[in-house]
Amino acid sequence: MRGRALAGALATVALAVSACSGSSEGTPEAGPTTSEAPLIPEPTAVPTVLPSDVLAGEMQDLAKLAERLAQQLPQQKRPAPIDVAAGSEQWRPGVAYRGYFADPDIVRADGRWYAYATNTSHLRLPTLVSRDLRTWTPLTDGAGRKVDPLQPAGWVRSRGGGQSLWAPGVGKVGKGWTAAYAAQAGTSGGERHNCIGLARGPSPAGPFRPVGEPLCYGQAQLGVIDPDVFVDSTGRPWLLWKFSGVVNRRPAGLFVRRLNADGTGFAEGSETRELLTLDEPWEGDTIENPSMVQFRGVTYLFYSGNSWERADYATGYAICAGPEGPCVRQNHGAPLLTTATTGNPGPGGATGFVDGKSLRLVYHAWDRVGGLRRMHVAGLWQRDDGTLEVVDPG
């Protein structure tokens, strides 16, 4: 899957114009974005070295390291271990949950944590709530009843009114909250073809209503998936996602583009940047599930590699010069979380987040391969050079 340059036709592929138009197989057609920039640009070489003014990362010289240490960095606190509490495998209002919860994303608001996952329990956007990161219960309405906070867009063509939505990302953008999700928009070559949808809500509990048009890339059979909503330290919102690649032409990769201030679409004049391309042997045939977070002056990009169905699935990370990159793998290219280092099979789908003065990762892992993918919370420590070590795998 090592890529070669694509034809110039790539430059015309971008945000889908119509949710209803499509090819004979039902894949949405694509048209220009508001800024006329392509959703997936033509391939360019991805840097392997960070700029000299980035004072973090492996291979920085002693002068740069001293400069970083001399900065007035916020204090960090060693994260206490967190074991997610036992609970029911059934989604029941008012009852602690410990069942299937894959590709978790997490936000904090009003003293509570909200976690979101790939569809489960017949919910488009399964949402758990916690006050301590340990005990998680399903989101309920004012009457204590089961609730699904997401209304999918009309272009979604999956079963059950949109129940097979994947790997959502949620973030506070402007005066509201933006939820991004991947869903089937049609088929391509007999395979499910995915696009990304955006929705807006007044709170992290929703309700989220569809906005804008689907983000589609028809030349990739599997399309685009795994969106992540990231708001940087200056308040600018970004959308990250996985491009599934084109067989024998271009490998899978992770991309980013700035959102507008309302979180309803891409910012006028914005352009897509490629952050990472499939490269390391442990990554197998794909990289996916990007998550970006900033902590003590360093921008981190977490991602998953290999097949989610196996214990080989793992989590790696890169340090970036900023939201648009460049991003360079750390840990000498090796993964940060593996089955061997965590004791949890296939740790992936991770989201980095700041908990007070600590950096953590929420991720899923199998209870046994082929069984349930359950949520875990790991604690990380930022070394003096900005690289990371796992304090507790969760």
UniProtKB/TrEMBL annotation:
Signal peptide range: 1-19
SUPFAM superfamilies given in the database record: Arabinanase/levansucrase/invertase
Keywords (A to Z) from UniProt: Carbohydrate metabolism, Glycosidase, Hydrolase, Polysaccharide degradation, Signal, Xylan degradation
InterPro entries: Glyco_hydro_43, Glyco_hydro_beta-prop_sf, Glycosyl_Hydrlase_43_Enz
Pfam families documented for this protein: Glyco_hydro_43 (PF04616)
PROSITE patterns referenced in this protein's UniProt entry, alphabetically: PROKAR_LIPOPROTEIN
Domain of life: Bacteria
CDD domains, per the entry: GH43_ABN-like (cd08999)
Keyword Signal included in the entry's annotation: yes
Family: Belongs to the glycosyl hydrolase 43 family.
Protein's recorded name: Glycosyl hydrolase family 43
Organism (species): Nocardioides aromaticivorans
